[in-house]
Specification:
Length: 376
């Protein structure tokens, strides 16, 4: 398929931090995707929390399944807009590599632990993973990904962190946060596909868990509209098929909305190439009506699922595990592997080690160091 003029072209890539000869059968973004899939950090995502801890049920989403769903949605939209599907897939598969065990609870706890040492943010940690923490190649640390993939991975960044990145890599992936420009259209697309994916699958997992009921969603316009449509077309539909059909229709509506709204924004801006698209402001977006409905759904999930007492209890336990692991490793670095224990930047080394843990490994380490067993 031919790409649009404003898509990220592999032949126009800004390259890698460590120059390499091209691969004979893959372009730069295809190679990035393959390196991500074969990384250790990617495999760990299968045992990292999305909302529900891995041991709470085999069918709940994990960071890995979430990343796959984001990649699928993003590729579908990219194809319709003639953007670069391989770059979209690479960014989507890598965007959560820096997530801690126990989801956002783990991140918040680790950020608090690192308050006096530069803080902790999972988007920046994902970049650290692909730039430094993966040790697979003899010539360099990290995966040596292209600028465009790294740019997409760094979704958010504080000004202070952007200044540090810029000092180490002038004109690199931190520059746009200082100049207030946008990333590539492919990166913008992954950000929105991430939102679409987690809103949908958190409904599914929330209902499966029993923490929210399908009838509670009757006041959420984005859900109830497509539930009504599904029942009108299939009046005998019952059980989980009602939920699945509603979510399927809801996902399709959001995908088509993004395609239409984005194409209209691109047509209005008329960027000549990928760099012009970066300077044009946000171009990948929902329509106004869909943005309102998506925000309403997010508020519902926050109030009824993410703040559910059962989830909050687990969140509290998870944060205790992370805090106590951090304190134990800072006090006794030799409890970590030598590659972390010997580093001079001790608090950051501890944060890197904990962030790379799966849920179950973190629980085992906590039990080993404290003698206390996680009580579900």
């Amino acid at each position: 398929m031919s790409l649009s003029p404003y898509a990220s072209l592999p032949t126009a890539s800004r390259g890698r931090r460590h120059p390499e000869p091209p691969a004979p059968t893959r372009d730069v973004f295809q190679r990035d995707r393959d390196r991500i899939v074969h990384s250790t950090a990617f495999r760990r995502l299968v045992y990292k929390t999305q909302v529900f801890l891995n041991h709470e049920g085999d069918l709940f989403r994990t960071r890995l399944t979430h990343s796959l769903e984001v990649a699928q949605l993003a590729r579908s939209i990219a194809r319709a807009l003639k953007l670069n599907e391989d770059l979209v897939e690479a960014i989507a598969l890598a965007h959560d590599l820096g997530h801690t065990p126990f989801g956002h609870a783990g991140q918040d706890a680790l950020d608090a632990c690192m308050a006096d040492h530069g803080g902790f943010e999972h988007n920046l940690q994902s970049l650290r993973v692909v730039d430094a923490l993966e040790h697979r190649y003899p010539q360099y640390d990290g995966l040596n990904l292209s600028f465009e993939t790294r740019e997409g991975i760094l979704k958010h960044c504080s000004r202070s962190n952007a200044e540090r990145i810029e000092a180490a890599e002038p004109g690199g992936v931190g520059r746009r946060f200082l100049e207030r420009t946008q990333p590539s259209l492919e990166a913008q697309l992954c950000n929105l596909a991430d939102e679409i994916a987690y809103n949908a699958h958190d409904i599914d997992d929330g209902v499966r868990s029993g923490l929210i009921g399908i009838d509670q969603l009757a006041d959420v316009e984005l859900f109830q509209r497509y539930r009504t449509e599904a029942m009108a077309e299939h009046p005998t539909l019952t059980g989980r098929r009602v939920l699945y059909e509603t979510i399927r229709r809801m996902l399709s509506a959001q995908v088509y909305d993004v395609i239409d709204a984005t194409q209209a924004a691109i047509d209005a801006a008329a960027p000549a190439d990928a760099d012009a698209a970066r300077r044009a402001g946000p171009l990948v977006l929902f329509s106004g009506a869909m943005r309102t409905q998506s925000t309403e759904l997010k508020r519902f999930l926050f109030a009824n699922l993410y703040r559910h007492p059962q989830v909050m209890q687990t969140t509290g336990q998870a944060q205790t595990v992370v805090r106590e692991l951090f304190d134990a490793y800072v006090a006794h670095p030799a409890e970590m592997p030598e590659s972390f224990a010997c580093r001079a930047d001790a608090p950051r080394a501890v944060a890197d080690y904990i962030a790379g843990m799966t849920d179950r490994f973190a629980m085992r380490e906590h039990e080993r160091l404290t003698g206390r067993v996680w009580v579900a």
